[in-house]
Amino acid sequence: MTSVSLVAPGDAPLTLPVAAAPAPARVPTARRYLMCEPRHFAVEYRINPWMDPEQPVDVELAVRQWRELKGVYEALGHRVDVVEPAPGLPDMVFAANSGTVVGGRVLGSRFRAPQRAPEAEHFRRWFEANGYPGVVMPERINEAEGDFTWTGRYLLAGTGFRTDPAAHAEAQEALGVPVVSLRLVDPRYYHLDTALFVLAEDLVAYYPQAFSPGSREVLAGLFPDAVLADERDAACLGLNAVSDGRNVVLPLEARGLAAEVERRGFTAVPVDISELRKSGGGPKCCTLEIRD
Question: Does the keyword Ligase apply (predicted)?
Answer without folding.
Answer: no
